[in-house]
Write a structure and sequence with these properties.
Chain lengths: ~325, ~775
């Protein structure tokens, strides 16, 4: 298996390249044109508090627990050789993650599906087999494949190999990225990308670092370079009330985005708090801000401000 | 109505109908909607127009008692004549279409309570008893006696082409052609046809006179009453002159045929059959598009006012192709869809036929209606539907004019008596029998042949053989009983009124029940394919391949409904591939079962010289047969519903709609001439906006391109439905399409609602 270290090279059998994903969503509709198959890559360089896919953040395999499915058969407790799966004095099972060696024996015996391994290594072949299953949907809708995550470009060789193979089979490709990666990774992937879906979270370098753990500098630099490169871009902004819905940010974003050449549209996505149970299931603190989903009127207002900068804005209606 | 009382009556009428001096004839639908909605609950039959129900019933009884020696078909014709010429009638000056007869279901009772009873106690007693027990223990569901009297469409084109007088003439020509060679039976049939058509024409004449009599008392509505009178003199006696008359024709014949004792299960190919009348009116400037739409609304609202969304809706089919194979879609197609959207009712039920040439615009229009909540639509794929009919002996031109009967069971327009719901067979039950050496575990009945103690089976193939032996036994037995019942049909329900509209009944001088139509079919509907497939595959995997459990362990767990064996049940359910996920092993198993089922059914001929035709769907049998089916090895608990339609079992289609499509389109639907359907539930976010509409259309087209048969959609999230359960008053207009027809969610039982919610809560 080994990774392909020469960007764009066709000498190494790229279908043998493997990478880590945590989910494949089929019949996805709002992640690029038409009906799409979305591959969710595992691992992300940012730590956005409002992340609704907390299982995407860590590069490592994780055990997720779905309490509503658990039938308390305690087979997991018996199966775990490390004593990580335990029974509390109240008879409740819980996972002591400090002792968990991720050897999956608990998941193997959990027939109820309450324990789940998040993250699996797949080859380009595996991915394409799934993608081909849905090819007839792309043909009737102008759809294709979207790489999302997590951050696909944290695994640039794998992402590029998947994209290259998709293009070899004439599937439309979209790359959903947070932009917090070396430009080299983009260079490698871009020849095989039809559309970039690019997240913009905040303009201020300082606020960005506070909110996501990283400055906005690299992200905005990369976005500028993408604009110069000529690849079509759709900007995606998750609007989180009190965090990035203020006039100042919106105006700054509008000005910056309006100055780029290849922005096809800006898609506004309202923040929602529905991922709370996922944080719990991963044994993590729920970092999602306790603010409401922005109202339609508010979204429309933001859309209006952005449109004033000559941008095509897609907002919920 | 007596002239002397006209003034007093006018006063009374003013109170009821309003006092407007001269009504605007057009643009009145919305204003009169509430009044029209009550038309079947508060029908004002004119007491002076005919006999009271009691007197009418006496007249019919007296006649039947005095003429018991006549052939049944003639008895029925005269009974029909008496009811339509002597019963009280009603014409509504606010409605465009006349209208009602106070018949008290006399003829239906004659057929269903008397003549059918006589047969089930006499010549077909054995079969009737076996089928009754088969229904009770969940082997199969067949109508009483094994005779499907309710799934026929009259020949709409034949009727409209020359009116009933044309059919009378055709009957007399056919009689003359037979000459001396005509049998007593044929002569009786021709007599009966002439009697009922003459009576139907007389009935329309009564409505015309009634409308005229009402004019003085209903001055504001005089124009409409005059139009009604004129129409009822023209139709159904003759070919309609206008679009309105064509609709009037269809309404009257629907009412009369249903009254005679059949269910009219298709109102015909609307945009093919009605289009020439519509086009001619619009071209001649007699009717505007807007007026035509209003007429359709009045027309369709009659069906909705009757069912109020609480029972089977009436099927109108659109688009597809003409007999010559050219694509069919026209202005009337879209106009009718506009009317349907404005009506915003779950009835009637619209079917959309599609071919590879069907334009995207039609897909998009239907998809948009469905996502807005107008989900009474079934989309049907002409490619496998036509191919399947041709394989069963229909000509290609005939096959292309099929109508979906009831839900999605095709029959050739005006040439076929397809008893599409003759039996629904539980595909999971033969496995229960095979696992218990022929004994049904819940009832203890020795319902099948002995196929051996399955615990002794060394290989899975032995179990599969036992399953097919049980299935074949059931099918053969049912087939025999249906044949016997068909032989008794002429004595149970002679149907001269509908027979004359179907080729070649008149030419042959034979009623529908005697095999008069060109094509005569019997539908064998297979229900619970997913449960049979998943259960067999589960046993193959866990017992024979993995040897994780012994068969006796699984049998024991099933007999206790998995009590104390929840981990085993979950293993069976979650760790074995399931139908509906695009999993090769499950898909192959389903194909083996479906192919065997269809081949066996197609090896039979029915009692009227026609084909037995396989189908794969469930309608409400998923619930009713499931209720008497024990726990199954797929992890389904005893008494739970079987899988709906041809789709996945409840809650196991975890690969979403693309997985479902991938599995289902691996079946060969050119082998299901009697139909099939996939239920698809979509989350509202999946079809929102332009992206969503594009995706929705893509889903439809992909399903059809891959050879899928029929599909129906619901667009909901589970939370909405839970809220609707708690607050039914807030969701009075919430429609869902479930097991074949579209109903108000509030009209479902709690159990049905729960099952539905459980299903969609699993993702989409």
């Amino acid at each position: 298996m080994g990774s392909n270290r020469s960007p764009g090279s066709h000498t190494v059998a790229s279908e043998a390249v493997t990478g880590w994903i945590f989910d494949v969503k089929r019949f996805a509709v709002h992640d690029g044109p038409g009906v799409r198959t979305v591959l969710f890559f595992k691992g992300c360089p940012l730590r956005c508090a409002w992340c609704h896919n907390p299982e995407s953040i860590s590069r490592n395999v994780q055990i997720m627990f779905h309490p509503q499915r658990c039938i308390a058969c305690l087979a997991c407790v018996e199966a775990c050789p490390h004593g990580a799966q335990q029974v509390t004095p109240d008879g409740e099972r819980w996972l002591d993650r400090s002792r968990c060696e991720l050897d999956r024996r608990c998941v193997e015996v959990c027939y109820a599906g309450a324990l789940e391994v998040v993250g699996r290594r797949v080859s380009v072949d595996d991915v394409l087999a799934q993608v081909r299953e849905d090819a007839s949907f792309y043909a009737t809708s102008g759809g294709g494949v979207t790489l999302s995550g997590g951050e696909p470009l944290l695994q640039p060789e794998f992402a590029t190999a998947v994209l290259r193979q998709c293009k070899a089979e004439e599937f439309h490709t979209a790359l959903d990225t947070c932009g917090q990666v070396r430009w080299k990774a983009f260079e490698q992937a871009l020849p095989f990308v039809d559309l970039v879906l690019y997240d913009v979270k905040h303009m201020s370098a300082e606020r960005h670092k506070h909110l996501t753990g990283a400055s906005s500098r690299l992200i905005l630099d990369n976005l500028r370079k993408l604009g110069d490169h000529g690849v079509p871009i759709e900007i995606r902004m998750v609007i989180v009330p009190t965090i990035n819905d203020g006039r100042e940010f919106i105006e700054a974003a509008g000005e910056f985005l309006g100055s780029l050449h290849t922005i096809e549209a800006v898609r506004l996505l309202p923040y929602h708090r529905l991922a709370g149970s996922k944080y719990l299931g991963l044994g993590q603190a729920n970092t999602m801000p306790e603010v409401e989903t922005p109202s339609l009127a508010h979204m429309q207002q933001i859309a209006g401000r952005l449109s004033a900068h000559g941008l095509k804005v897609i907002a919920p209606d | 109505m007596v002239v002397a009382t006209a003034a007093a009556e006018t006063e009374q009428v003013k109170a009821v109908w309003g006092t407007a001096e001269a009504e605007q004839v057009w643009g009145t639908f919305e204003g009169n909607r509430d009044h029209l909605f009550a038309q079947f609950r508060e029908t004002s039959f004119d007491p002076d127009s005919g006999l009271s129900l009691e007197a009418l019933e006496r007249a019919v009884e007296t006649y039947l008692a005095a003429h018991a020696d006549l052939p049944k078909v003639v008895q029925k014709a005269h009974a029909f004549r008496l009811v339509v010429t002597r019963g009280q009638i009603a014409v509504d000056p606010l409605d465009w279409f006349a209208d009602k007869l106070n018949h008290g279901h006399i003829l239906r009772r004659l057929v269903q309570k008397r003549w059918l009873d006589e047969a089930t106690r006499g010549p077909i007693a054995e079969g009737a008893a076996w089928l009754k027990r088969a229904r009770e223990i969940g082997i199969a569901a067949a109508p009483t006696g094994g005779l499907d009297l309710g799934h026929i469409s009259p020949g709409w084109e034949n009727m409209l082409a020359g009116g009933l007088t044309g059919l009378i003439r055709e009957a007399s020509l056919a009689r003359a052609a037979l000459g001396e060679g005509a049998t007593e039976g044929q002569l009786a049939f021709y007599d009966a046809v002439e009697i009922v058509y003459a009576a139907a024409v007389a009935f329309a004449g009564r409505l015309a006179r009634q409308a005229e009599r009402m004019m003085p008392a209903h001055r504001p509505h005089e124009a409409r009453l005059r139009a009604i009178a004129s129409a009822c003199r023209q139709v159904p006696a003759h070919r309609p002159r206008t679009f309105r008359e064509a609709l009037q024709f269809a309404w009257l014949m629907h009412e009369l045929i249903e009254m005679e004792g059949e269910n009219v299960r298709s109102m015909g190919h609307f945009d093919r059959v009605m289009y020439p009348y519509y086009r001619a009116d619009v071209d001649a400037g007699r009717l505007t598009r807007e007026q035509a739409k209003e007429l359709i609304k009045f027309f369709w609202f009659k069906w909705y006012s009757r069912t109020r969304g609480r029972s089977n809706g009436k099927n109108f089919v659109f688009a597809g192709q003409h007999a010559d194979g050219s694509v069919l879609v026209n202005d009337l197609t879209y106009l009718a869809l506009d009317a349907y959207e404005e009506l915003n009712t779950p009835d009637p039920k619209l079917s959309i036929r599609v071919t590879p040439e069907t334009p995207d615009a039609l897909f998009a229009r239907v998809a948009d209606l469905v996502r807005k909540g107008h989900n009474s639509f079934v989309l049907m794929n002409d490619v496998p539907a036509v191919a399947a009919l041709v394989k069963r002996g229909k000509s290609i031109e005939d096959a292309r004019t099929y109508l979906p009967i009831g839900c999605y069971e095709p029959a050739v327009d005006g040439k076929e008596a397809a008893c599409t719901m003759n039996v629904t067979v539980n595909l999971a039950k033969p496995l229960e029998l095979a696992l218990h050496d022929g004994v049904d575990p819940l009832s203890g009945d020795k319902a099948g042949p002995r196929t051996g103690d399955p615990r002794q089976f060394a290989r899975f193939d032995a179990l599969l053989d036992a399953y097919f032996t049980q299935l074949d036994f059931i099918l053969t037995r049912i087939h025999g009983h249906i044949q016997e019942a068909e032989r008794a049909w002429p004595q149970i329900n002679p149907s001269p009124l509908i027979a004359g509209t179907i080729d070649d009944c008149l030419a042959r001088g034979k009623d529908v029940g005697e095999g008069g139509p060109r094509y005569n079919s019997v539908g064998f509907v297979g229900a619970g394919l997913a449960n049979a497939c998943d259960s067999l595959l589960a046993l193959k995997r866990v017992v024979f391949d993995e040897r994780r459990y012994r068969l006796d362990e699984v049998l024991e767990a099933m007999s206790s409904n998995f009590e104390g064996r929840e981990p085993m049940r979950l293993y069976l359910r979650n760790r074995v591939p399931k139908w509906g996920n695009g999993e090769p092993d499950a898909d192959a198993m389903a194909r083996v079962i479906a192919d065997h089922y269809c081949q066996k059914v197609h090896s039979f001929r029915n009692g009227r010289g026609g084909a037995c035709q396989a189908a794969l769907f469930t309608l409400t049998a998923a619930l009713s047969l499931g209720r008497v089916t024990g726990a199954t090895p797929d992890g389904r608990k005893a008494h739970e519903s079987l899988a709906p339609g041809v789709g996945a079992a409840y809650g196991v289609d975890k690969n979403g709609v693309t997985g479902l499509v991938s599995s289902v389109t691996k079946l060969d639907f050119s082998e299901t001439p009697n139909g099939s359907v996939l239920d698809v539930t979509l989350h509202p976010t999946a079809v929102r906006g332009d992206d969503g509409l594009c995706a929705f259309v893509s889903l439809m087209k992909t399903f059809f391109q891959r050879g899928g048969y029929a599909v129906q959609f619901n667009v909901f999230d589970a939370d909405t439905l839970r809220d609707a359960q708690r607050h039914p008053e807030r969701y009075e207009s919430l429609q869902i399409r479930v097991t074949g027809w579209s109903v108000y969610f509030n009209a479902l039982s709690k159990e049905e609602q729960d099952q539905y919610i459980r299903r969609i809560a699993y993702g989409f």
